[in-house]
Design goal:
By secondary structure, this protein is of the alpha+beta class. Helices cover 56% and strands 13% of the residues. Its main location: membrane.
Length: 804
């Protein structure tokens, strides 16, 4: 497939451009039909909502608020009333508005604050917030705010109003792409190579977003799905292309022509990308086990975007590589290739030194990493789930201003009133019991309708306060049973509490499902019980630490001002499920890319220490680059202006950073060094029953002395360390394996820690020659029997050891 895409690059490119434009035009013409299918069956708040819908069908929709304040005088003054009342009357006539309750009517005295300077009117739409047309909401906002003048402020709050207060889209995505471009340019040193992952990600995310918009017309997809699809699509799209382009460039530097390098890159890293993309989709699909139906649309949108991003990486990318040819390398690399010929790219520098350091001190590295992760996870103990409301909005938004005005005029609990819905007529005992309950500011009963009575209960505390949650429990467990009536507690605040409770109850099942699936995938990939078990523990550790960071920032308020966000509050109830899905999927990617290289080395050498050291040295740079790109993309969503999006962005950025920079780069290799050969243990009975799955097959061997690769590959290896007489590692030493007659079989360059490994075609006697400048050279006869041979070499300055 890679070769076909490479050779028919213009056809592939035109197909992708046509798909993007076609989906874009179709989605623009059809518009969006996002729907919030938010339902919590078998909860008290759902039963209260059903009774409300039965009693007041025209008022079962969203109720928003118009609030105004005068600097001087009273809201009852004729000059104020003459501006506000006509605006409210006009709003009441709009199609889609069920009713408007203003403070100037006979029953409106309670809608004016005690000092007479703040008043509010309630606008009840015919439908729930997400079903109200944005055009209608904008008309309501414009009509109300046109009544403002100097000395008279008019603000609006409510769920429907929030939809038209969202900042312009695209800013966060653009900043994330620009940050990723900088990281890619530093990593590649080539403008064209930098553009490749970005172009692939844009095509993947673009087709995914447009496809999700079209799907919203045939199934229930929430608007949240579009945001999360962009978030995850940009991250994985750029990362997957980065892995493939890195392997392609390495192939060209080794002397392969661009087409063969592209085919090899897709047949190795491309396979790993397919596997990694599959793990992300499986983790996302894990949300389905929660049985929270509004998440179904999120799963559809995010999974579609990931699938299209993977498809772009394995089809569009080879076509683009075909268009660029050698220009995928930097100018310096192209000049070096022309002047010096092919060269083998070896792990050196900081990556190799760090890998050797982890091998020398695995206990110290593991201890520091565990202590750091545990310290970051401590705030998780105070995690409180809830719903982000307009008190968390930016101070410049009209929803936040309305929220603050209502709290100022009528108390903090006014922004989240509870509705006690009685199936029948409310008894005097119930009303009295509600009024006497601690934490209740005031109680107001609405006349019965269709056999249902609604009593509005205003708490003394804000909707997000823990005291409000305890008040809801008190009403349900004590006050209502004591009154002896059938009643249910509803309202936005009660729904939020029930949602947090349901999420918390189903979270263990969800975590167990995605960890179990991840365990099985890694068991198949690496044929080991210890590797997937280690990965599962690491994933839980990463999740705990990242949620600890979230709690410290968004619940405790550390750094919120620095991020330019609103005030602290509970963690959004939906976030744990969505964040854990993405985190487990992405961390699995890094685990696959890291351990697959270790596993390949283990299969060839059966030396665990070498396998872990080489695997870490050769993959840590690309994993860290990929993680840095993800962090930039996720953090950019702080600029979206949406508090929930910012929370998700910060949480995912923290999770990816901790996972890549601490777990995969330090703790995982340290633990694997400590476990030794146990890493690769698999019971013999299980070994026979498991199917073989090569995540990333070994690249074809480069041409040998005859110019033809050995079809059977090496039967064994000779490996060890090159050191000075003082025990210092020698980097850059040339290690050559010769036949007894002097024909060269293999040649490598020692790494920063002095390590080397040469391939042996078959058991027998060979000549091993090691040369380093300004040190001398040393040669020795080595005999390979039926397994890897360890042979360390000591070089002395000026010495030449000749072997006949």
């Amino acid at each position: 497939m890679a070769r076909w895409c490479y050779r028919h690059r213009l056809v592939v490119l035109l197909l992708w451009v046509g798909a993007l434009l076609g989906l874009g035009v179709s989605a623009s013409g059809a518009g969006t039909n996002y729907a919030e299918v938010f339902s919590l069956p078998d909860t008290d708040s759902k039963r209260a909502y059903d009774l409300m819908e039965k009693a007041f069908p025209e008022r079962a929709g969203d109720t928003d608020t118009v609030v105004w304040k005068v600097d001087e005088g009273s809201v009852r003054d004729g000059s104020v009333r003459s501006r506000i009342q006509p605006a409210l009357t006009e709003i009441g006539r709009m199609e889609g508005v069920g009713a408007v309750t203003d403070p100037y009517g006979a029953q409106g005295a309670a809608q004016i604050s005690e000092d007479g300077r703040i008043a509010y009117a309630q606008v009840t739409f015919a439908e729930q917030a997400d079903a109200v047309p944005k055009e209608l909401v904008q008309d309501v906002v414009d009509t109300a705010q046109d009544a403002a003048r100097d000395g008279l402020r008019v603000e609006l709050g409510g769920q429907a109003i929030t939809r038209v207060q969202e900042p312009p889209t695209g800013t966060a995505e653009l900043v994330g792409i620009l940050a990723a471009a900088v990281v890619l340019f530093v990593a590649f040193g080539s403008l064209f190579a930098m553009l490749l992952p970005i172009v692939v990600a844009v095509f993947g995310v673009g087709t995914g977003m447009f496809g999700t918009q079209l799907l919203s017309h045939v199934t229930d997809v929430p608007e949240l799905a579009s945001l999360l699809s962009t978030l995850i699509g940009l991250g994985v799209g750029i990362d997957y292309a980065l892995f493939i382009v890195t392997r392609h460039r390495r192939g060209i530097l080794r002397g392969a022509d661009p087409e063969e390098a592209a085919v090899t890159a897709l047949n190795t890293s491309g396979r790993a990308v397919l596997f990694a993309g599959g793990t992300v989709c499986i983790a996302l699909a894990g949300m389905l086990v929660t049985n929270l139906r509004f998440l179904d649309g999120v799963v559809i949108g995010t999974t579609l975007t990931v699938v299209l991003s993977v498809l772009a990486a394995v089809t569009l990318l080879p076509a683009l590589l075909g268009l660029l040819g050698h220009r995928v390398l930097s100018r310096r690399q192209r000049r070096g290739l022309a002047a010096e010929g092919p060269r083998t790219e070896t792990a050196s520098g900081l990556a190799a030194r760090w890998s050797a350091g982890v091998q020398r001190r695995p206990r110290s590295v593991a201890a520091v990493a565990v202590v750091l992760m545990a310290a970051l996870a401590v705030p998780l103990l105070s995690l409180r789930l809830g719903t982000v409301d307009q008190g968390n909005d930016d101070a410049s938004m009209t929803t936040r201003k309305a929220y603050d005005l209502l709290a100022e005029g009528f108390g903090p609990g006014f922004n989240g009133p509870l509705q006690v819905v009685v199936d029948g007529e409310a008894s005097d005992g119930l009303v009295t019991g509600l009024e006497e309950t601690e934490g209740v500011a005031r109680v107001a009963a609405v006349p019965p309708a269709n056999g249902v009575t609604v009593i509005q209960v205003v708490p003394t505390t804000s909707p997000q306060a823990e005291e409000t949650d305890r008040l809801i429990d008190t009403l349900r467990e004590e006050v209502i049973p004591r009154a002896g009536v059938e009643a249910h507690v509803g309202g936005v605040t009660a729904v939020s509490k029930d949602f947090a409770t349901v999420t918390g109850e189903r979270l263990p099942l969800f975590i167990g499902t995605i960890i179990g699936l991840g365990f099985l995938l890694l068991l198949l990939a690496f044929r080991s019980l210890v590797v997937p078990l280690t990965a599962a523990v690491m994933n839980l550790l990463a999740a705990a630490a990242s949620f600890g960071v979230l709690v410290a920032i968004f619940q405790w308020g550390y750094g919120l001002d620095l991020l330019g966000l609103g005030q602290e509050g509970p963690i959004a109830s939906f976030l744990p499920i969505i964040m854990l899905s993405l985190l487990f999927g992405l961390s699995m990617d890094y685990q696959v890319f890291l351990v697959s290289r270790m596993h390949e080395e283990w299969v060839h050498t059966r030396d665990n220490a070498r396998a872990v050291r080489v695997g870490l040295a050769e993959t840590s740079r690309v994993i860290n680059s990929a993680a840095l790109i993800m962090v930039c993309v996720f953090l950019a969503f702080v600029l979206s202006g949406d508090y929930g999006a910012a929370m998700a962005g910060v949480g995912l950025a923290a999770a990816v950073a901790l996972d890549a920079f601490i777990l995969r780069t330090a703790l995982v290799p340290a633990v694997m060094h400590l476990l030794g050969k146990s890493n690769w243990w698999l019971p013999a009975g299980l070994e026979k029953r498991l199917p073989h799955l090569a995540v990333e097959p070994k690249e074809d061997a480069p041409p040998g002395p005859t110019g033809v690769p050995d079809p059977h590959g090496p039967s064994s290896v000779v490996h060890g360390f090159v050191r000075t007489a003082d025990g210092e590692p020698v980097e850059g030493a040339a290690v050559t394996l010769l036949t007894p007659g002097g024909r060269r079989l293999d040649r490598v360059i020692s790494l920063a820690d002095g390590a080397y490994i040469v391939s042996v075609p078959a058991p027998g006697a060979y000549l091993l020659v090691v040369t380093a400048t300004p040190l001398g050279s040393r040669a020795a006869h080595v005999t390979v029997v039926d397994g890897p041979l360890v042979h360390d070499v000591e070089l002395t300055p000026g010495e030449v050891d000749a072997v006949n």
